[in-house]
Automatic annotation (TrEMBL), chains A, B:
Signal peptide: none annotated. This is DUF2520 domain-containing protein. InterPro entries: 6-PGluconate_DH-like_C_sf (IPR008927), DUF2520 (IPR018931), NAD(P)-bd_dom_sf (IPR036291), TM1727-like_C_sf (IPR037108). It comes from Aquimarina spongiae. Residues 169-292 form the DUF2520 domain.
Amino acid sequence: MCSRSVCVLELNRILRFNIIGNTHFSTIHVVNGFLFLILRLLPYFCRMIEVCLLGAGNVATHLYHALNGAEDVNIIQCYNRKGIPLHPDQDATQIITDIAALKDADVYIVAVSDDAIAQISDKLPFQNRLVVHTSGSVPMDAIAGDNRKGVFYPLQTFSKDKSVDFGTIPICIEAEETQDLNTLKKLASPLSDKVYEITSAQRNVLHVSAVFVNNFTNHLYTIGTDICEAYDVPFEILHPLIQETAKKILEIPATEAQTGPAIRNDQQTIARHLKIMNTDSQKEIYTILTKAIQSKHGKKL
Amino acid sequence: MCSRSVCVLELNRILRFNIIGNTHFSTIHVVNGFLFLILRLLPYFCRMIEVCLLGAGNVATHLYHALNGAEDVNIIQCYNRKGIPLHPDQDATQIITDIAALKDADVYIVAVSDDAIAQISDKLPFQNRLVVHTSGSVPMDAIAGDNRKGVFYPLQTFSKDKSVDFGTIPICIEAEETQDLNTLKKLASPLSDKVYEITSAQRNVLHVSAVFVNNFTNHLYTIGTDICEAYDVPFEILHPLIQETAKKILEIPATEAQTGPAIRNDQQTIARHLKIMNTDSQKEIYTILTKAIQSKHGKKL
């Protein structure tokens, strides 16, 4: 039995007891009035959140999969111009290609590319409803039109063909109104244990950091791969080191985990390394990051 | 019963059968001759590898823990100038502070800092024995003295207080002589499933790549932390993204996993990000890595 049913049964039991029980009338009156109020408010707390999902990219697809299995969430429509299903088994009647056909919903999630957020939200054929985007770098007020604005940003790198465990993904939410923030909390909580209220300014800061720890880190993996390939050394030998480097950040701050020739100011090794690199870009990045590590940790090149 | 005892018993059984069994004499002679040869060679294949471990740093400590529990390996002595035990329960008689007191062993592992390898190996009071260092960046011939040289390099980032699962750590081995390479293979195989024969030149290449994927990546984590701290945003929100970035490299090449404003040439986001960074060093690294990603992926800034 779901927690909602238990809650209603419990209320009925208390109501019955108070009406037929041997209790003073005025107490019955007060308690029943209070319970009547709770019952009136119950649908607000307990009913399904109805969602329309706009977009057909990586984020839309992964959100569809996560929300589709979530308790108390009902995806009523998915809009994208080409009518692409977000799952092979998706009910075709759920997919619309005409934005004007969007039904009433509690939340409209605009999971499209950053540039398209203003354009799509401007075409929404209604007003004063909760419209959220899913971008890390676009401010909330980029949502056009006269709707209530919000953000529902799952902070993760999504690939179309790679499933993700949504339970570990932080979801950063933002809304203009408290009531909408509560709706977004309710929408996020069955998906993830990590729900953060984050302002547009804070989200921008997170996004810059994410570029360093994800995009730039990935480019360092690319350089590592290129150097290994140039000398016919299998890059996979470095896989365990990469995993350990990422795991360490969960236990100690990065500044304490720093090792290597830069922080040791090991000029001999640095010189030998620079001879191995084949491109000016690799040498430039090596030199600048070496200098940055030494500057951060109080050593001069 | 250990596999060695089983092996010897089985050979005795076959020998006995061949001597007393109803077999043609010449066959007995040939088979017994063959088995005699195997028995003569058996100690070479089966006996414990005796190891002396020199050094008391992170690598020496982690190697001690790994080798101490390894089948067919016997650590007979540990040398370091201060007589520091490598484990709280280590037998005190095993620890020596006088390098001249080193006993006969199959392998002497010089697990000291890169600069000290030549110096320590030069002081060894014997010749023509197998002496290996554990460094990623020092050539094998940096080992001084008239001993047989080798390398036993576990490719991982070690912290003193953090235990590591040696089973997943690649061990790169190198030796001047085939027989010594075989000894190092036998020493490495109970420790790790990933044993690679790697030349000094290849090891140098691996070490440069390791600097990119470990040291420099860790510095990017430091920058991410600094940016978050400057704006009071909890950096831990980025932990799952960091883990996912590292996991992705196990499945798809880094060049295919590249995402973000650089590869999309999203100038608006890049400009907004540059405004957030507080230091010239952060801006310089951001600009150079953005340019490198675009150059690698065929886009111009």
